[in-house]
Amino acid sequence: MSSAYLTSDDMTLIERLLREIREEGPERNFDRETAAAWFLIQQIEKGSTGEIVLREKLAKHVDLHNALDPGKQ
Fold first, then answer.
1. Dihedral over alpha carbons 8, 11, 13, 19 (to 10 degrees)
2. Phi-psi group of 47: left, alpha or beta (phi > 0 → left; psi -120 to 50 → alpha; rest → beta)
3. Distances in whole angstroms, Cα of residue 40 to Cα of each of 18, 45, 72
4. Of 71, 57, 73, which Cα lies nearest the Cα of 21?
5. pTM, whole model, 2 decimals?
6. More confident site: 40 or 65
7. Which of 37, 46, 69, 70 is most buried, with most CB under 10 Å away?
8. Residues 12-46: pLDDT tens digits?
9. Are 57 and 14 spatial neighbours (Cβ–Cβ below 8 Å)?
10. If DSSP codes are grouped into helix, strand and coil, which group holds residue 63?
């Protein structure tokens, strides 16, 4: 990556992907959303910028996070 900063396009992509996994209502899991945001930032910093690839990686990350959350079982 040529820059250490996320671009506005990167941020828009992150928000779009987070919106897809966001839970509705007052019971939203902010820990999961924060972990997902950091995961996406790290992936973009490593050079992954394709939306389809990031969506697939995020789905696996969320599945793992849910599997490790005792409240989801």
1. -140
2. left
3. 9, 9, 22
4. 57
5. 0.82
6. 40
7. 37
8. 999 999 999 988 888 788 888 999 999 999 999 99
9. no
10. helix
Residue 26, token pair as written in the block: 């007052």
Distance, in Å, from the CA atom of 51 to the CA atom of 10, rounded to the nearest integer, reads: 10
Instruction: Extract the tokens encoding 39.
Output: 């995961």
- What tokens were used for 53? 């690839």
Asked if the model's pLDDT at residue 5 lies above 70, the reply is: yes
Distances (CA, A) of 9 to 5, 12, 31, 52: 11, 5, 24, 15
The pair of structure tokens assigned to 28 is: 């939203």
Handedness of CA 65, 68, 70, 73 (dihedral sign): positive
Please tell me the distance from the alpha carbon of residue 47 to that of residue 1, in angstroms, as a whole number: 6
And the tokens for 5?
A: 């900063």
